[in-house]
Every structure is written in structure tokens, then in C-alpha cells.
Amino acid sequence: MATTTLTDRYQRVVELRRNRTKSVFLRFSGFVVLGAIVWAWTSGGPLLGRLSAERRWTNFKNFVGELVPAPVDKSGNWGDAIPWAWELFTDKGLEALLITFGIASAAIILSALFVSPWLPLSSRKLANSNPMGIWGGRRNQFSQTVWRVVGPVVRFSFVLARSVPEYLIAFLLLSLLGLQVWPLVLALAIHNFGILGRLWGEVVENADVEATEQSIAAGGGRFSAYLSRIFPANFNRFLIYFFYRWETCMKDATVLGMLGLLTLGKLIMLEKGFHWDRVFFYILLGASVILIGDLFSTFLRRRLR
Amino acid sequence: MSSGSPDPFIRTGRTSGRRWVVLGLIVVFFICAWALGLTPKGLLPPDSTHWERTGKFFAAALHPATDYQDPNVPDDADPIWVKGFKGLLLTLRFAFGAMSIAVPTALFLGFFGSSAWWPEPCGRGLRLFLQTVFTICRFWMSLARSIHELIWALLFLSAMGVSPLAGMMALALPFSGTLGKVFSELIDEEARDAASALKAIGHGPVQTFLVGIFPRALPNLITYSFYRFECALRSSAVLGFVGIETIGLYIEFSYGESYYREVWTYLYLLIALIVLVDFWGAAIRKRLHPTTEAWQPRP
Asked: Is residue B248 part of a domain?
């Protein structure tokens, strides 16, 4: 070691740098993203719209002025805001919050129940004619072909389900099924079917293989290996993602009310343009509930980890 | 894990909590369904007009429009697929614009919302200062992401008027909150050996961060940013419903006029784009994290 000089070390650094792994694809992707960002900022019309700067500024000032609660605006006393807020809360706010909670919970549980049976069929290790690569007897051509297709098809169905935004599904279903709660629940459930499929699918994929291999080698099937080995051992990880998606569902259910059902979103749409102070109150109400939900689910996830 | 027996395969008297969690969730579902009045009957269209509309809508899925159904479209208008592609480009534009604001903001917030780079030993005054900045950043990130992007859009459009920048800001704000939170957690979870070694030989906190922590966390940061880009793309499409010109606006308009075949053309284009970006993201992930274990999806 004593004989290595500074130059030797420097050369070693140069050599290491030269031999580092490089990927043409990643570089290409990087340039595409950079180009796209430049294009996003330079193409199209004026970024700030067509209004003049002064006009925008007066609009903005008016808007901010309207956010002040009406009784406070009249009397100048912020103490008047409390009975005002309490009335808004008890009148419609609480009901809207409970409905939001119900929609989010029903939707996420529904999609969790529906996605569970598909998970072993989406796993690259289990959805084979010989699961886990363990020889399980001769398979005929038909079974081999079927198993070659099953995994990709299930995974692609997850991609499809999550590719359509939930707001769009809810918008379409509402006019087909009429104004009721099902379209919102279904929209959230369909979208989250795809998301949970991916998140839980990766948990199944990354699960410890040993116990699963034992089960398969002893003659067990894909589903029994999944139910008896993978599912119990990774239950907490499943729950972590479940609560994360539940939290997101709460946020989305609030907004889906903008389509016309009684969650906070509907109240916001009704009052917008007329009573910005009330809109602001509902927004803060929704945000505080989501903050609480966020803390709760972070706490749960920490506990489960 | 919670069983008292040293051998996990020997069952002890204590039942695991798992079955109670699963049963509890099923019970919660039925309570919610009861409270919201969800019945199996509600899954079917309520009357013959709705049945007819549903039939027409799904029949149109097999014949997406190759030409406008709207009779009032001028003759020199672009063909529908060109209009669809323009809608996709606008959707992409908002997503890229928003992410280019959100990622730098999130890096800033994530840096101050993490504690891995704090100097050791740390004086009491400095520690208090860092802790304050840390808490403020964390709180701001929670607040920004607890308001949905559509509501941000509503506020921005009302305050600033309809403009591309308002749409981008509406997306960028909540996204910077989510990205910043995950960035700070990724930075904090990264192994601290290199950082400790650097601190021990006298490097400052910023050097420690830039040399010892950031390069290691970078693949995870990129992968997560790309995942959020996919989300931004979906949100950008939905912004069309509050009046920003993306493909969502075209879908809403065609649907409102009952031009279902046009709706399906736009829907197929949107789905194709999102699936394509999904595959692009998977390809990037595969190259950044050669072993699957190195990448765990993040909430």
C-alpha cells in the first residue's frame, strides 16, 4: 500500500469512471425529458393568459378579499367567524365528510377484495406452468401456452385499470347509472384495482421465496402457496399500501363530489363564484380531515413496518 | 411474529390479528354500503333511457369515430385524430411543465425536510434552527398535498384567470408536497455509512449531502419522480374538466353532446399514451434498479 502514489490513485479513479455502467436508453430518456420540458415552457400561447398585468392584479386582490368570512367582512371582528364556521360545519359539512369517508372506505375495501385473487396470477414466479421453476410433472402444450399468456394478461389489465383517471370513470358512469353513490365507489374501486394490483403485485414478487418453494415442492398449488405462505408473511406490507390508498381515496372522494353528489366537492361547486369565503372554509375543512387521515395512516404504517 | 412460541410454525393459543383485520374490513364495507344505501340493484341503469344510453355508449366502444359526429364542424377543421393528438400534446405539456416546477421545489423541500445531513455534533442553537426549518417544511408539504389538484386548479383559475401557468401551478403545488415528502424519506432512509465517514473527517453538511447521500439516493429519486409524472399525466387530463384545454375538455364536450364514438376515440388515445408512459417508466426502473429487491414501491 505504501508504494501507491497519488497518480496511481488518480488513474484508478479515472479507470473506475470509464468502466462505470452506462445505459444508452437512460441517457436518451433524459434528453427526451429535458427537450419536453423546454418545449412545454416555450410552445403555445402566452403563459399568463391574455389579461393585462394590472387587470390580473385587481382580480387577484378582489379574490383574496372575498375569502374573508362574510360576518367578519361586515363587522371587522374575527370572533364572528366561529359561530359562522360552526353553522357551516353542522349544516352540511359534517354530513359531507361522513359521506366522503363512507365512499372512500367502501371503494378501497371493494377493490382490495377484488384484486386479491388475481395477485398469484400476476406473479412472474407463480404464474407459470411450473410455479417457482420447480418440476411438477409433464405439462402439455396447451397448459404451457395458457400459462405463458396469463401473467402478462393479468398485469396488463392492471395497467389498463389504473390508466383511466378515476374522475373520468366517475363522470362517465354517473350519466349511465344515474345520480347515486355507486358510480363514485365503482370509479375509485376500478382505478385502485389497478394501483393495488401493481403495489401488492410487487410485494408478492419481492416476497421471500423459500417458504413458497417448500410449499410448491410438497405438492401445493399456486393459490395454496399464496394463501398459506406469501399472504400471511407479507400481511403488514399489504396493509401499508392499503392505508396509503385509503388516504388517497379520501382525497379523491372529496373532489368527485364536484360531479354532483353530496361530498365536500359538491358544496364547493355550489358556492363557487358566489360565496368564496364558504368555499375556502370547505376546502380547509377537507384539508384538515385529510391531514388527520394522513397522520393516522402514517402512524399505522410506522407501527406495521 | 407476535406469537409467543420461538418456532413460528407451532401455533400458540394466541390468534393472530390478521383474520380480525380482514373480517373487520369486510364489516366496515357492509356498514358503509348500508349507510350510503348501496344495493346490488344500483349497479344497473335505473330506467329505460339510462339502459339505452348505456347500450349506445358501450356499442360505440367497438366503433370509435374516425370522423367528427358533430355536423357543425367546419370543413377545414383538422381530422379528429389530429385533434386528439393535439389534445394529448397539450396534456403532456401541462404534465411536463408542472413536473419541471414540482421536482426542483421538492428537492429543496426534501433537503430541508430530512435530517441525514445535519452536522454532528450539532450546537443547540443550530439544532433548534434546523428543527424549526424541518418542521415548517414538513407541515407545508402536508398542507400542499392535502388539497386536491382540482381544487388548487379552481383556486388558481379564479385568482389568476384561465392561463397555462395557472394550470401548471395547480398541478405543481400538491405534487411538490408529495414528491418532497417521499424525497425526504428516501434521503433519510439511505445508509448513513458514507455520510458518517465524511462528517468524521471534517466535511460540512452540504458537502456530506452532495457527495455522501444524494448520489446514492438518486436512482430512487428518479424512479419515484417518474412514477409521479405518470400521475401528473392523468391529473393533467382531468384538468380538462375545470376548463383547461387538455384532452379531458374534448372528452367532456363530446360526451355532453352524446357523440359517444368521438369520446371513445379520445379515450383510446389517452389510454394508449398512459400505457406507453407506464412501459417507459418500467423500462427506466429496470435499468436503474437491476435487482427487483433494490426497488420497493413507495406509498
From this structure: yes
